[in-house]
Amino acid sequence: MQEPRVTVNQVSKLAYPSILSMVSITIQGFIDTVFISRVGIPQIAAIGLTTWYLLTLLSFLRGFATVTNTFTARYLGSRRYKAIGVIVWHVMFVSFIFGILYFCIGLFSREIISLINPPVEVYGYAVDYLKVRFYEGFFIVGLFTLEEFFRGLKKPYISLEIIALISFINIILDYILIFGRFGIEPMGVQGAAFATVIAELIGFIIFLLVFFNKKNRHSHLTGKIPHLSISLMRRIFRVGIPIGIHGFLDVASFLAFGIIIAKMGTHALAINQIVIQILSLSFMPGFGFGKAATTMVSAYMGAGDIKNARRSVHISILMALCIMMIISVSFILIPHLYIRIFSKDITLLNLGKQVLLIAAITEAFDALGLVFSGALFGAGDSQFVMWLILVGGWCMFIPSTYFLGIILNKGIVGAWFSMAFYTLVWGILCLVRFMGKKWEKIKI
User: Fold this and answer.
1) Which of 178, 205, 228 is the C-terminal boundary of a domain?
2) Are 32 and 159 in a shared domain?
3) Which pLDDT score, from 0 to 100, does residue 300 have?
4) Would you say residue 234 lies in a domain?
5) Cα-Cα-Cα-Cα dihedral of 289, 241, 390, 310, to 10°?
6) 4: in domain
7) Are 189 and 123 in contact, with CB atoms under 8 Å apart?
8) In this predicted structure, what is the pLDDT of residue 418?
9) Which of 31, 80, 238, 441, by CA, is between 20 and 30 Å from 260?
10) pLDDT digits (tens, 9 = 90+) for 357-375
11) What is the DSSP string of 274-301?
């Protein structure tokens, strides 16, 4: 039976909770940074040093967990409701193994930080922070998995509510543990790490309680641990591992980009960080509508309705473009207002205007890449997106950044031209892939 024509309202209900989840996480990170900045400069340097390292590792785990969204939505669309719990349990099993490996990496925190070779006054704080954060390995991938499970069920508001609660608890615990309140000794950076781990653990427990509620146990057999299926595991790996590698390579490329920028001097490094913080505002709509596209494409493919799968993505990209282009116009018209939030330094203001202009021009292609890659993930075409970031990001983006920024001495402006060109190529190739028909035939 043909599904009803997908509407703007349906897409919005899936996208906006994901956008607001990102807003919640961003606010939490901002307040966390403000609290640590009150403790001392070495402490905030330690957090900054370890954040990108953790993000790189976690991006693989979060990316792999996206497979839960793809399979859940596919089974939902094909009305195989009672098979959904089987999928989630299999992903949870793999997630637990990945989480243990993540924790084991943390046992070598001192050696890891030594390789980075930070200033002496930063080293100890960085090690203290990492050693605590790696304890999240026992449950963090399970948290990501259940978050994507509810998105795949077209109930992203559940994920939003729990993620917002995690952020709120994290902020409260930050205040108590970092500064030492209610009889607790001040813990500084370790307090920030404990706050994050405890808040995430509480969130994971709440996710589990909802996962095991009576309705889910009845509709999706979430309370029944299934026998391990090797064939199902292969299918999960075939779709999930490329998404995880894509996430890892994507964040790692930004880390490499930052290392190259660091060679250009303090002002270049500072404005790069400022611009990335500003751009995080514009990425959120693309992220949210990309998640909506993942869910809807997979669900409609499960129902055998390719027409609505395509229409859902067309609506997603139009809405993402509208919002992101409005934001990009503000980058062009009032760049100084954004930059002055962070600094009033004349050199930074002048550099920032140039970089924000370049970034604004490429916003449309960012929207294309974020939404269409999300759609391809939903279709199960994850290997294409993985190879795109591998070849485009690491064979084109990073080398051209070094060539323009360092060898030709074009500085941060040259580096961001490289970023702009890569974004353009990435967005167009994702569009072209989706406009074709190959993804329509993929079975997961």
Assistant:
1) 228
2) yes
3) 93
4) no
5) -30
6) yes
7) no
8) 94
9) 31
10) 998 888 889 999 999 999 9
11) HHHHHHHHHHHHHHHHHHHHHHHHHHHH
Q: How many helices (H) and strands (E) does the chain have?
A: 18, 0
Burial of 237 (C-beta count, 10 Å sphere; 0-12/13-18/19+): middle
Same domain, 355 and 428: yes
Question: Residue 414: which residues within 8 A CB-CB, separation 6 or more?
Answer: 401, 404, 405, 408
Looking at residue 381, its amino acid is D
Query: Do 129 and 270 belong together in one domain?
Result: no
Is pLDDT at 404 greater than 80 in this prediction? yes
**pLDDT tens-digit series, residues 279-299:** 877 888 898 999 999 999 999
Determine contact, residues 238/71, Cβ cutoff 8 Å. no
In a domain, 235, yes or no: no
Please give the tally of structural domains in the chain.
Answer: 2
Which residue range(s) make up the domain with 104?
A: 1-228
Residues 6+ apart with CB under 8 A from 337: none
Alpha helices in 107-229 (DSSP H): 109-116, 120-133, 140-152, 156-179, 188-211, 214-220
Question: Both 206 and 107 in a single domain?
Answer: yes
Question: Tokens representing 245?
Answer: 């590698």
pTM: 0.89
CB burial readout 113-151, b (16+ within 10 A) else e:
beeeebeeebbebbbbbbbbbbbbbbbbbbbbbbbbbbb
Helix orientation angle between 230-262 and 266-302, rounded to the nearest 10 degrees: 160
At 422, list the tokens.
């890569």
Share of the chain residues as helix, strand and coil, in percent rounded to the nearest 5: 85, 0, 15
Contact 276, 358 (CB under 8 A): no
What end-to-end distance do the CA atoms of the chain give, in Å? 22
How many whole angstroms separate alpha carbon 88 and alpha carbon 374? 20
Both structure tokens of 50: 């370890």
CA distance 404 to 407: 6
Greatest mean pLDDT among 207-211, 260-264, 408-412 lies in 207-211
Question: Of 228, 249, 265, which closes a domain?
Answer: 228
Domain assignment present for 117: yes
Do 288 and 333 lie in a common domain? yes
Q: What are phi and psi of 437, to 5 degrees?
A: -115, 0
Contact at 8 Å (CB) between 32 and 46? no
- 81 shares a domain with 159: yes
The answer on 156 and 201 residing in a single domain is yes
Residues 76 and 134 in one domain: yes
